[in-house]
Amino acid sequence: MAPSPVRRLDPVLVDRIAAGEVIERPAAAVKELVENAIDAGAGAIEVVIEAGGRRLIRVTDDGRGMTPQDLELAVERHATSKLPDGDLFAIGTLGFRGEALPSIGAVARLSIVTRTADAAQAAAILVDGGAKGPVRPAAGARGTRVEIADLFGATPARLKFLKSDRAEALAVADIVRRLALAHPAIRFTLAGDTISTIDLPAEGSDEAAALRRAARIVGADFVDDALPIDVMREGVRVHGFAGLPTAHRGSASHVHWMVNGRPVRDKLLSGAVRGAYADVLPADRHPILVMSVDCDPREVDVNVHPAKSEVRFRDPGLVRGLVVSALRAAIAAAGHRATAQGGRDALQTLAGRQPQSFVQRTFVGWQAPVDTGGTAASGDAHGSPLPGFAEAQTPFRSQDEQISSAFLPAADARAHADDAPALDAPLGAARAQIHANYIVAQTRDGLVIVDQHAAHERIVYERLKAERAARGIARQILLIPEVVDLDPADADRLLAAAGLLEAAGLVVEGFGPGAVAVREVPAALAGGDIKGLLRDALDALLDERDAPVEARLDRVLSSIACHGSIRSGRRLKPEEMNALLRQMEITPSAGQCNHGRPTYVELKLSDIEKLFGRR
Length: 615
Prior knowledge:
It contains 20 helices and 23 strands. It is an alpha+beta fold. The protein has 3 domains: 190 residues, CATH 3.30.565.10; 127 residues, Ribosomal Protein S5, domain 2 (2-Layer Sandwich), CATH 3.30.230; 274 residues, formyl-coa transferase, domain 3. Strands 1, 2, 3, 4, 5, 6, 7, 8 and 9 form a 9-stranded mixed sheet that branches. It has a 5-stranded mixed sheet with strand order 10-11-14-12-13, sandwiched between helices. A 4-stranded antiparallel sheet has the order 17-18-19-23. The protein is elongated and about 95 Å long.
């Protein structure tokens, strides 16, 4: 077949091709129209959809509106009021391409009614399948109302690529929520025949207003779990709210980023979040985050994606470093704080049981723990449901020196009058150890249940990191080197990482084919399972083989901390338990262990009393 001659495409066909890039689904059309309303200074924006947006999309705002002359140009390609000087590198608005309205008009029936504040009447225009009608007078309030009927009616082949009406409506709702997060001073409403109505009142423009808007969208619990952040460096400001590590979710749908008021899903920012939370979250979980980056428009390119959902920073290293350091500082400053949702979940579980059965199994027969003066309490730690305090079966080794140095003076556990200061502490005063792993502590307004192994694991880990940063990790030479047999390939990998392991306090050298001799270990691990640690360190190195050196080193330190912490099944004395609680209160990120699991659950007295019908 002979090649066709080169020719200009029909303008309507050009618009339909553009619509394929800009308006791929109803949610994209809603995004473009709502962004136009925000740029027009709207204080309230109403969105109505039918059939997921296929049949109808109506966006009404109370913004500045347009004159008849502006309205006629607005439906032409590449006509915009948002680039007054034509500078693509200083974009201060959300929309700027001038493609949305003509693209929509090319594939649907588009009608616009608009009126400025000083106009005697509104102006209207209709664009049907690319055919533009004249501007005519109409009745209308100040602002703009845009209606899209029969989306993709002019290109019916596109309809088969759409999902169900409900799925498309949910995508529209997601767009509205994200834009509402970025602009808390505007009222947003969304109504449709397949979704619940969304009504977000205007909150204001300060940080408190932003938190209220965030709580309405990501959940009311976020108010208690949010860590405020506001830092600035070299003209780049990062501010907003980051959730506590223990308030995590199974997907990244609750991670929200705005750049100069524009909601984005940016790989650089997503990577920075993963890096900041890597030490405190399980690998398959994600934090809750509502954060903004504000900078000079010339420092960010928002013109790298047809839907403007991605950006590119002029100095990505500066932005990433600022985000990571800000998030890490906020998490560290939170200390032992953990989400209150853990306690609420525990209470809901208990509430589902028969109260009498719960009482009989748990509290009947309980008595205040008694200081046995060196004799183990009666009852086996795994056989008795709630044994009293007991002497430790073995004394603390060197890995516990930090806790040992913080031991509280011994007290008669039968008298609680002397522990008033501990009751006022965030984690309270230890009252019992159950199943030789969980410490039950009393506070002024409730009780706390602590996982002793998880808590001490975090304490040891943070201490090792602090030692590494200050003077290097304290090591202990083994009198007899520990020889560990491994697969020859694994042994080679360990020896190749000998320098990194030495920085973590492990000194290894080859000992024949497939064998490694451990000559020095971190002081925190003295007497621990060196063979198990070496295998865990190898797994950590393999998992993080492509990660930066510091991340790989942290993984090794995490393995060391796990092996060097108080083990489950270890019975503790009252002063040891209280010392552990006090150390948790001053240790960064003590609300979760190195694997991201919570280290304690807090139950409020008022909620406990509800279980027993006392409230």
